[in-house]
Specification:
The complex is a heterodimer of chains A (about 110) and B (about 110).
Chain A (H helix, E strand, L loop, with lengths): L4 E3 L2 E4 L5 E6 L6 E7 L6 E7 L2 E4 L8 E5 L5 E5 L8 E8 L7 E2 L3 E5 L1
Parallel strand pairs in A: 2-11
Antiparallel strand pairs in A: 1-3, 3-8, 4-5, 4-9, 5-6, 7-8, 9-10, 9-11
Chain B lengths: L2 E3 L4 E5 L4 E3 L2 E3 L4 E8 L5 E7 L5 E3 L5 E5 L4 E6 L8 E9 L6 E3 L3 E6 L1
Parallel strand pairs in B: 2-12
Antiparallel strand pairs in B: 1-4, 3-9, 5-6, 5-10, 7-8, 8-9, 10-11, 10-12
The chains are: A mainly beta (about 110), B mainly beta (about 110).
């Protein structure tokens, strides 16, 4: 089966600019996750979708980050405006259901200058 | 809120040495436990998982982990490491509710010297 796809793979922007990341999960997976991984740390959950509903977004900085999952399939994560501390790898993962194995995409490495 | 602690940030071993990586979590209820691995240049992928039953679980490439409920631990082991095991290892916990909330540890970088 095809894996989780993410684009772009790399992005460099200046602070206060906006950026968007795209994720296409594995077909049939109901759960979709967005993580932020800062260098030297583990993935931190930003938002979790079950189909097209939000299950958990308690760690999403809602003043600047937003995410949506279109028709329960693809998802986009947006940052507006970006700050220096947003420099990180943004990982998308999907799973058949919320408590099982997560399948990760390659991630998007964001550098904010 | 649950948390996951991995005690070793960087471990360096010679080939054929035995490996044990510690993982402790804090959560009073039922959890599902995972070890993920990220080889250089590759995606995070599942190494093994525990949901219920036998607390000793076996994964890919000769890895195993033991769930000790009384210690809130899920340590990863391998009797004899190989150079190809060089990677970053992450312990993760999902709270076993309808949707589950996922929490990862900060990872352990394992370097195996040939």
């Amino acid at each position: 089966e095809a894996g989780v796809a993410q684009s772009p793979r790399y992005k460099i922007i200046e602070k206060r600019q906006s950026v968007a990341f795209w994720c296409n999960p594995i077909s049939g997976h109901a759960t979709l996750y967005w993580y932020q991984q800062i260098l030297g740390q583990g993935p931190k959950l930003l938002i979790q979708f079950q189909n097209n509903g939000v299950v958990d977004d308690s760690q999403l900085p809602k003043d600047r980050f937003s995410a949506e999952r279109l028709k329960g399939v693809d998802s986009t994560l947006k940052i507006q405006p970006a700050k220096l501390e947003d420099s990180a790898v943004y990982l998308c993962a999907s799973g058949r259901w919320g408590v099982d194995t997560q399948y990760f995409g390659p991630g998007t490495r964001l550098t904010v200058l | 809120a649950q948390s996951v602690s991995q005690h070793n940030h960087h471990v360096i071993l010679s080939e054929a040495a035995s490996l044990e990586l510690g993982c402790n979590y804090s959560y009073g209820g039922t959890v599902n436990l995972f070890w993920y691995v990220q080889y250089p240049g590759q995606h995070l992928q599942l190494l093994l998982k525990y949901f219920s039953g036998d607390p000793l679980v076996k994964g890919i490439k000769g890895f195993e982990a033991e769930f000790i409920k009384s210690k809130f631990s899920f340590n990863l082991r391998k009797p004899s490491v190989q150079w190809s095991d060089t990677a970053e290892y992450f312990c993760a916990v999902i709270v076993n509710t309808n949707a589950g909330k996922s929490t990862f540890g900060d990872g352990t970088t394992l370097t195996v010297k040939p």
